[in-house]
Design brief:
Helicase, Ruva Protein, domain 3; alpha+beta; DNA-binding
Length: about 270
DNA sequence: AGGTTGACCTGTCAGC
DNA sequence: TGCTGACAGGTCAACC
């Protein structure tokens, strides 16, 4: 999915429903990417005192510990205040609280629900420890971004996806931000001039903020907690538009593969 | 140490 | 209609 905007939109809708409620039941379905790491029963009785996002992880602060949810490629979360019926074949994790049910539905099972005793525990550190700065927080300055890119010889698209310089920029928004900044996805990160780095820094924030406002993208099966699809898809400038005319210059959009992932760009507008 | 590749798992869609 | 292969939002571990 689930890039930063989708996770952020999910967090925003989950938060008011879950905050302050107490877990009364936990159901674990088929194995996800990682095991929960604790007997589900130990979560019962704990109150959800915080709902946060870090990169593409949803974090639920409990009285004693932290629950991390990742949506992988195909995950989505639903919450409802009435019993949503029996678990479906792809509902692999469910939290029942004193006022609602929350389910993680994930056909491909690349997602995960993991318990960590604290944010500083090894369990949490393994997943969160290497993450770069949040693109929409104050730490993401263009100076920081330029310093991060200066150390990286690899293609800028793959550095963005790596998540150790800046988190949350996934395959769709990496293509979109690079188009907005006029930078070719294959360009070595350290070979981008400062003026263009500033443009990319701005483009990443613009693309993400816009996507959040539109409710996240919805290329396939992403759904919000209320079951509605996002609207970003209709706003895509390059992603998924191979062969179609560039919105700036009319040249056909190209598709290449980098690191086994599809990249879309305009060979005229992006250098 | 940074860069690259494979693996995880299953649904959908295009093409024959 | 049915089968096969390509492809899909992510990210870690294991290599060079």
């Amino acid at each position: 999915m689930p890039e930063l905007p989708e996770v952020e939109v999910t967090k925003q809708s989950l938060s008011p429903m879950l905050l302050g409620t107490t877990i009364s039941g936990v159901h674990v379905g088929k194995p996800l990417r990682w095991p929960l790491g604790v007997d589900p029963k130990t979560l019962v009785g704990q109150t959800i005192v915080g709902v946060r996002r870090r990169g593409k992880y949803l974090l639920f602060d409990l009285d004693a510990g932290l629950l991390l949810l990742h949506l992988g490629m195909s995950g989505s979360v639903s919450v409802s205040q009435q019993w949503p019926g029996p678990l479906g074949p792809y509902d692999h994790f469910e939290l029942q609280t004193t006022s609602c049910w929350m389910r993680l539905n994930d056909p491909r099972r690349f997602g995960a629900a993991v318990f960590a005793p604290s944010e500083n525990s090894p369990q949490a550190h393994k997943l969160l420890g290497h993450l770069g700065v949040e693109p929409l927080e104050a730490g993401f300055t263009s100076d920081y971004f330029a310093a991060g890119l200066a150390k990286r010889a690899g293609a800028i698209k793959q550095v963005l996806l790596g998540g150790d310089v800046v988190v949350g920029v996934g395959n769709i928004y990496a293509s979109e931000a690079l188009f907005m900044a006029g930078i070719r996805p294959t360009r070595g990160a350290k070979r981008i001039g400062r003026v263009r780095i500033n443009k990319l820094h701005q483009a990443i924030q613009t693309v993400l903020v816009r996507a959040i406002a539109l409710g996240g993208s919805s290329l396939r099966d992403f759904k919000h907690t209320n079951g509605e699809h996002g609207l970003f898809q209709a706003n895509s400038q390059v992603y998924g538009r191979e062969g179609q005319a560039c919105t700036q210059c009319q040249a056909p959009i190209k598709r290449i593969v980098q690191g086994q992932r599809a990249t879309y760009f305009c060979a005229t507008c992006q250098r």
